[in-house]
Amino acid sequence: MGATFLASAAPAFGVERLTYRDRNAPIDARVSDLLSRMTLEEKAAQLRSMWFSKSAILGPDGNFSPDKATKVLADGIGQIARPHDFAGKGVFLQSREIEDSVALVNAIQGHLVQKTRLGIPALFHEEGAHGYLARDSTIFPAPPALGSTWDPELVEQVFTAVAKEIRIRGGTIALAPVVDLARDPRYGRVEEFFGEDPRHVAVIGTAAVRGFQGRQRPLAKDRVFATLKHFVHGVPRGGLNIAPSDVSERTLRETFLVPFAEIVKAAEPAIIMPSYNEVQGIPAHANVQLLQGTGRRQLGFRGAYMSDYGGVANLQTHHHVAANKADAAVLAMNAGVQADLPDGECYIHLPELVRANRISETQIDSAVAQILALKFEAGLFENPYIDPKRAVRETNTAASVALARKAAQRAIVLLKNDGVVPLKSRAGLKLAVIGPNAEEALFGGYSGFTAKGVGVLAGLRNAAPKGVTLEYAEGVRISEPGGDGRHDTFTPLVKVKPEENRARIAQAVETASRSDVIVLALGDNPIITKEAVAYPMPGDRNSLELFGQQDELVEAMIATNKPIVALLLNGRALAVNRLAEKANALFEGWYLGQEGGNAFADILFGKVNPGGKLAVSFPRSAGELPVYYDRHPSDDVNQYVEGPRKPLFPFGHGLSYTTFDISAPRLSRADIGRGENVSVSVDVTNSGKWTGDEVVQLYIRDDVSSVPRPVLELKAFRRVTLAPGEMRTVAFDLTPDDLAFWDADMKWTVEPGLFLVGVGSSSVSLKTTRLSVA
């Protein structure tokens, strides 16, 4: 099928050379020419998508039906959602074989190019939060793990690989990256976030966009358009998905808008996706001030706004600001949402709304122009088809697997170590590998599935030195798995019977009693930490303790008096006070992707030195939230009856098998003007016996300001690798924008005065100096 279409890419439009068909014409001219030839119905179709409604163009076997498409796609279509799946055929979680997915893309494009009046190809969008969400694609560590690498160069490489796997299977848009801030760990969607700090997320998010799109536009053939999302989640009330975000204009500008603003400026993302929730009292998909005032005029965004899935319809069903889907379409169009994803159930009313003078055709034209421009930029008019053999050959390659392993190695954070790790291998060493997260390769949400996934137990077995033996016990079960034996995002939560878990704990105690060291794998699974999409499938929590009976298992393991090496695999920061107190070593891994087991084994046995750092603060309890590090001074004037609010593990924290010395910061000038730069340099020395990585972090604090400022603000960071005894000088530039803030009149300004400048290995381990600004 694909070969036939490849041979017939030239449409049968007669001999007239149309401007929009001229690949050498400017994109604006091609868009203008095509728009002038389109009917209102053809324009409206470009603003819609098909996901579950794909059933209207599929036959009983799930394959493309030309006869059905002739009627359904007569006016064309803007986008197709997730062509890899069977949505609309009752088995949408099932992913097609690569060749079948490619065949469907080529069939749809062939019909649109050859059988519709104007021959306009479709965009295909896919999920790519940490890998292409499709069968057999490479699964990289989850976003919090990528954030823990503090390595933008590596992150750019990861998303370059993700982009290629999406594009070679026909995708042109990635609905990623998520650049919201993880400020409330109760919220299940924090598993999609890189971290809590605006600057850190901006840097990592910029790297992700550059990986998806490349560093130059127009889009290259192995790249895809990036989608920044979600604009703007803020902190939903109670940590509940879709709940309102009660944030002031100042808080928006100082925190939640920072990643969007910096990424728009640095990387020119093609698309922004509004959030589900209210922002300052107005649902984001109907928020003219947010999308036009803030996004367009303040941030300078020039790309397309595409709705979150059902975001336009939610104006009726969730927010009750629209009486019906047609009203919802009017609100979203007036706010400037250019595409109604995933099924266009509201924008199907656009022609009738134009005829009723409720919206103008000029509004439609402006939106369609954005969609068509993406299609021209991606080269879809010239090259609408893809090669199935290449798609198979270049998916989940050896190079991608190696990159996934490297990313997982660099993501793992060593939180505590009394010297037990790296494990000193010896003949006869017995390891008890115990815990609900020890055997299954947990990928986290927004990921596909690959049989190449390596869990902790398999990774340790692969790497165990000669003479080291392993014995496994499940210990407890966090929740019951789905029918395929996996803990998948869309598996309903079924709690485990306590008596069954206690039997598992007893078995684990027997196993541990025969060991020299316990390797304990705990945390979350994708059933309990995820985007809450429906009542029987929650993902938000009111507690941050280990879920279920995991704490019972922890106490049972402590009682054995065996050394404990614990690994957390999870999607949110957890209040693991007892584990942190009693474990001899504690690692944070988040979800480590398909190579997670191998990466952890590399670190446990000392082949690789851990160097990751926390990109979120770990709380001691949900009652102490918020615990993010950049609070205002008045946040901590008082304390709780139980004691002062302090994180269990602070932002930026992470240990190594070696030690580092970071000198006091040196300023190129101690006094500068308000419009001047200053260079900050430190000497970093590996004072230990292992080659290792240190993340050098630069923070500032405005000592006295006209409005309260955070007690610390991260402004720059760099991950460096040093051999034992090696010293390197690391330099950063502080610019006026780094020192500026929104003053009492909401003007972006640098105020004169003294600034603390601190450099160190975490937000609580800093050496400081003072900078005077006149």
What do these coordinates show?
The protein is of the alpha/beta class. 29% of the residues lie in helices and 17% in strands. It is globular.
Tally of DSSP helical segments: 23
Strand content: 15-25%
Total number of strands: 28
- Gyration radius from CA atoms, angstroms: 27 Å
Number of domains: 3
Shape designation: globular
Give the low-pLDDT segments.
1-15
**CATH hierarchy, class of the largest domain:** Alpha Beta
Helix content bin? 25-40%
Strand order of the largest sheet: 1-2-5-6-7-8-11
Q: State the separation between the terminal residues, measured CA to CA.
A: 70 Å
Organism: Sphingomonas tabacisoli
Family: Belongs to the glycosyl hydrolase 3 family.
Protein name: Glycoside hydrolase family 3 N-terminal domain-containing protein
InterPro entries: Cellulose_deg_GH3, Fn3-like, GH, Glyco_hydro_3_C, Glyco_hydro_3_C_sf, Glyco_hydro_3_N, Glyco_hydro_3_N_sf, Ig-like_fold
